Amino acid sequence: MEKIYEVILKPKREFRVPVELEVVTPNNFAGKSINEIISQVIYEGNRERKLGELFEVKGEVGESPDNIRIIIENSCNKLWRIGEGMSAGEIIVKGDVGHYLGKHMAGGKITVHGNAGSWVGAEMVDGLIEIHGNAGNHVGARFRGEPQGMGMKGGKIVIHGNAGVQVGLGMIKGAIIIDGDCLEFPGMKMRGGSILIRGNCPGRAGADMTGGKIVICGRVDSILPSFYIESIEKATKVKGEKIEGPFYMFLGDYLASRRAYGRLFVSIPNNPHLKNYAKLLEEGGE
């Protein structure tokens, strides 16, 4: 078994403003000495710092990012941009983390034993992000103003708690799994991939989506009127995992395109207020 080289970072003090840690990736650490790593330039707010000024750094560094594991101890929500652009190796965060975790990630694994801020895995291409807590808004989303092709293109994001608004905005491929609840607009402008929400969602799921799959196992307050009931399904699958239903299966969003192939699965037992959709199926109407 190939040796794993561990580098451990620990804050020297509490932070009052964001500390941008885009340099903290296995790709950037690979082949460097500890002295070279602590000399890396980072920003605390608008002030330029050296990594070693703000963090204790110890461990052993490998030549390849594939066998480097970075551990951040006593982490807090002021630490932003961890794992940005990484394509290999592993990062483990012990504590909370701030915004832009795994932004543009292309491979490797990030695990957070705490809560995360907004834009987790934004525009990621591949890899795995796992949050053992809650996440903020825009999980796996594309950034505002970016063209449609800039959405999440692959990889997997797992949130074991709750998430905010616009999960998977502009998503193209990959999978996002929310074990808890999420807020409005999951799958907005979605073109492909899968979103599984095991908890509840207030509504507006799949707004402007033209492809992909959204599965909501909990309660949904309402279905957008531009979605049409297609069938009742006993179960469905997300990344090979069988999700037991039964579900109402809707197609849409027909306001976004007349050729909308987005699929929205909504639990029947947890949404008795949507029983009229079963009647529509029986009548063959819309």
Automatic annotation (TrEMBL):
It comes from the Archaea. It is an enzyme of class 1 (oxidoreductase). One of its GO terms (biological process) is methanogenesis, from carbon dioxide. It catalyses: N-formylmethanofuran + 2 oxidized [2Fe-2S]-[ferredoxin] + H2O = methanofuran + 2 reduced [2Fe-2S]-[ferredoxin] + CO2 + H(+). SUPFAM superfamilies: Alpha subunit of glutamate synthase, C-terminal domain. Pathway: One-carbon metabolism; methanogenesis from CO(2); 5,10-methenyl-5,6,7,8-tetrahydromethanopterin from CO(2): step 1/3. InterPro entries: Formylmethanofuran_DH_suC, Glu_synth_asu_C, Glu_synth_asu_C_sf. Gene3D superfamilies: Glutamate synthase, alpha subunit, C-terminal domain (2.160.20.60). Residues 68-222 form the Glutamate synthase alpha subunit C-terminal domain. Its EC number is 1.2.7.12. GO terms for molecular function: formylmethanofuran dehydrogenase activity; transition metal ion binding. Pfam families: GXGXG (PF01493). NCBIfam families: one_C_dehyd_C (TIGR03122). This is formylmethanofuran dehydrogenase. It comes from Thermoproteota archaeon. The lineage of its organism: Archaea, Thermoproteota.
